[in-house]
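Researcher: Quick sanity check before group meeting.
Model: Go ahead. Protein one:
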Amino acid sequence: MKNDTNLVICRRLKLASLTVIAGLLPGCTLFPIGGYGPDGQTRADFENRVETAFRLQNQMTSEVMVMQETDGYTKRQEAIVEAEQRMQKSCRHLNEYASREMDGLNTGFLLLRRVESSVVECETSARQVQALLKLP
């Protein structure tokens, strides 16, 4: 039964991810002309980066949820859960944007700027969780 629930959650996350990303991309036109993100990327490269970061952090959240369903709680699991909590904090602007988009609410320019400025931190923290989980 738990595996069925996880499959439903994963499918919903994928659908939500694609919906959010589709909504996020047009909003990127509001960013400065000198480039997007902290590395001054092209629009297409930055959109890809945001999409990749969003998908990675969602995947890591799902993996941690699955890990927590196993019996026992080790120091390793504790470290992973703490890293996942840091990831949630660093990806909060991207997740807030995604949530507002899915609810049809105004996202605003300032939130878009926070997404732009936090994407590197979000990516980094998601990769740290990935490394702790020993996933490729």
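Researcher: Fine. The other one?
Model: Protein two, sequence then structure:
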Amino acid sequence: MKKNNLQEGDLFKLPMVKDYFVIGLIVRIKGMLMYAVFFDGKDESILEITGFDPLNEKIILRRICSALGLKNGDWKILGKTTKWNKKDWPIPLFRRKDLISGNYSLIKYNDELKEISETVAKANEKLDHYPEDGVAGYGLIEKQLAKLLS
């Protein structure tokens, strides 16, 4: 699959173990970098959803990641969501931990997936609901999903 064939709103399938799979949704894509959300594939209703909610409790992972799994064919495109609207899917803030100080920051990205701001979080601020910052390779995504689903 050529990278220019990938589009926002595309659904894709990640095989996990045996007949089990995860469904991904491309929310933003720039070259081989994408912001995607992932759903538990055992809920077959995911394939029939006509309008997605970015706060949907069925989302099990939100990450900026490589599209290499799609390019090399390990992840399969299923088609476009029927009611895709980019405005309904703003890019969230991401949490980043400074490995030296242990402090957290909230990172904002633009639609081209470029970092545009960083705000240091307050000392006792709860950040668990923010997705983890950093670009994940497709192998890491598969490992994170396997851990979340085990």
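Researcher: One line on it for the slide.
Model: Residues 138-149 form the longest helix (12 residues).
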